[in-house]
């Protein structure tokens, strides 16, 4: 049985007529830059996330970059980021000649460890970028209160977490100073190419972000800031507007799939319960634990499982075994930032990041996309069971 890591075709088939119409509408108008679809997408995202302002941008990476530019980050400023994330979270800091300072992660949630964040603060620290990794909120209460104490900005990297509500009901991306989202095709809300959006409740940030997106220009050809071309394509905005109303349904299906995986692992005796962080006799597969109660109606914080990530010993062998069984998996992320060649100049000590190293060496993301069938999920778990019995 084939189980791809991700198959976007069923989602397109479902919405094909509407999406094709939306694309044709933009093509007919020949209005490819800005245009009404961009303004409407921004308004619809603001309403969805219950945030005052949204600015569509060219990618999730550019969302992070433009957010830091809006904070006026200068060379030698320090920005604290978890060492375990997609490269963009740290790359944007270094691209502005500021210094990324790494923290370890919480072993259960994979998100930034607030205590390590506080330890890494110096006089040069200007901001922190918590990442809501895999579709689960970082511990925002602690992060915001530490940031307030030291007068730091909070930029949320919500690239994998659109629609995630924190335990108090607020949407991630609306809690810190600026929220950053990606519409890369594999995210829960994906475009037909690169796109992203930044969100804020602060009108001054909003005005600056809008200008920075257009070379820091206002009025035309008068440049207040040195910005860039960070615009979202109108075609992307038109496609995303068709998909947005379906997002919650897709996320609910991902949660159901995650629940099924976890139950099957527990029923087969491969896992004892969620959120255990050491391998032992009973726990050969460490399964993800949503920090707050999940799967129940009316609970606020939930995990939207952009990825369902297990941790196993002999991860690379299992990955190869599953490849042979035509099951698509991926490792997010095999090399934390402090081990990246391009960051050796930072001289970070490997032993300061034990939980990130453990995750990098043992994590494996299983297929979790909404349209998976029971048979496919059952097949994945059976194959993993077979591998563990043989090893
Ligand atoms: C995808 C992603 C980004 C970057 O988004 P792009 O749209 O690919 O540029 C940034 N941070 C995280 C955590 C991501 O997963």
Account of the 3D structure:
The protein folds into two domains: 9-245, 3-Layer(aba) Sandwich (Aspartate Aminotransferase, domain 2); 247-390, Aspartate Aminotransferase, domain 1 (Alpha-Beta Complex). The protein contains twelve helices and ten strands. The protein has helices at 9-29, 36-49, 60-70, 88-95, 114-119, 140-149, 203-213, 234-243, 247-267, 315-324, 354-362, 374-390; strands spanning 53-57, 78-82, 99-103, 125-128, 153-157, 178-182, 196-200, 285-286, 308-312, 363-366. The strands form two sheets. Strands 1-7-6-5-4-2-3 form a seven-stranded mixed β-sheet, sandwiched between helices. The protein has a three-stranded antiparallel β-sheet with strand order 8-9-10. The radius of gyration is 21 Å and the shape is globular. The chain starts with 8 loop residues before the first helix and ends with a helix. The structure holds pyridoxal-5'-phosphate. Pyridoxal-5'-phosphate is lined by residues 59-61, 85-86, 88-89, 131, 157, 159-160, 182, 184, 194, 196.
Task: Give me the secondary-structure category.
Answer: alpha/beta
Task: Quote the average pLDDT.
Answer: 95
**Major beta sheet, specifics?**
7 strands, mixed
Broad shape: globular
Order of helices and strands: HHEHEHEHEHEEEHHHEEHHEH
Helix percentage? 25-40%
Strand content: 5-15%
First-residue to last-residue Cα separation: 22 Å
Please indicate the count of domains. 2
From the 3D structure, determine the CATH topology of the largest domain. Answer: Aspartate Aminotransferase, domain 2
Helical segment tally? 12
């Amino acid at each position: 049985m084939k189980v791809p890591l991700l198959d976007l075709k069923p989602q397109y088939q479902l919405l094909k007529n509407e999406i094709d119409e939306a694309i044709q509408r933009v093509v007919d108008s020949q209005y490819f830059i800005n245009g009404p679809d961009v303004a409407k997408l921004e308004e619809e995202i603001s309403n969805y996330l219950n945030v005052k302002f949204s600015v569509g941008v060219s990618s999730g990476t550019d969302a992070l970059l433009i957010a830091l530019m809006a904070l006026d980050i200068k060379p030698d400023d320090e920005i604290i980021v978890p060492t375990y994330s997609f490269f963009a979270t740290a790359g944007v800091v270094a691209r502005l000649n500021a210094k990324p300072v790494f923290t370890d992660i919480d072993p259960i949630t994979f998100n930034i460890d607030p205590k390590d964040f506080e330890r890494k603060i110096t006089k040069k620290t200007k901001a922190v970028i918590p990442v809501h990794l895999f579709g689960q909120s970082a511990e925002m209460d602690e992060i915001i209160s530490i940031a307030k104490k030291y007068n730091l900005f909070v930029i949320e990297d919500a690239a994998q977490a659109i629609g995630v509500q924190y335990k108090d009901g607020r949407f991630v991306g609306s809690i810190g100073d600026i929220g950053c989202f990606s519409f890369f095709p594999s995210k829960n809300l994906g475009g037909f190419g690169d796109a992203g959006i930044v969100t804020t409740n602060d009108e001054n940030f909003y005005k600056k972000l809008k200008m920075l997106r257009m070379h820091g220009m206002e009025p035309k050809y008068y440049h207040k800031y040195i910005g860039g071309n960070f615009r979202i394509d109108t075609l992307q905005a038109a496609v995303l507007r068709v998909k947005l109303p379906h997002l919650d349904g897709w996320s609910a299906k991902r949660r159901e799939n995650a629940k099924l995986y976890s139950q099957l692992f527990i029923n087969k005796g491969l896992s004892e319960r969620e959120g255990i962080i050491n391998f032992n006799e009973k726990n050969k597969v460490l399964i993800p634990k949503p920090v707050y109660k999940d799967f129940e109606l009316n609970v606020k914080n939930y995990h939207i499982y952009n990825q369902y990530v297990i941790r196993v010993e002999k991860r690379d062998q299992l990955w190869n075994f599953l490849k042979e069984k035509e099951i698509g998996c991926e490792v997010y992320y095999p090399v934390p930032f402090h081990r990246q060649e391009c960051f050796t100049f930072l001289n970070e000590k490997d032993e300061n990041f034990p939980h990130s190293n453990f995750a990098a060496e043992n994590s494996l993301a299983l297929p979790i996309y909404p349209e998976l069938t029971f048979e496919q999920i059952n097949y994945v778990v059976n194959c993993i069971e077979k591998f563990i019995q043989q090893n």
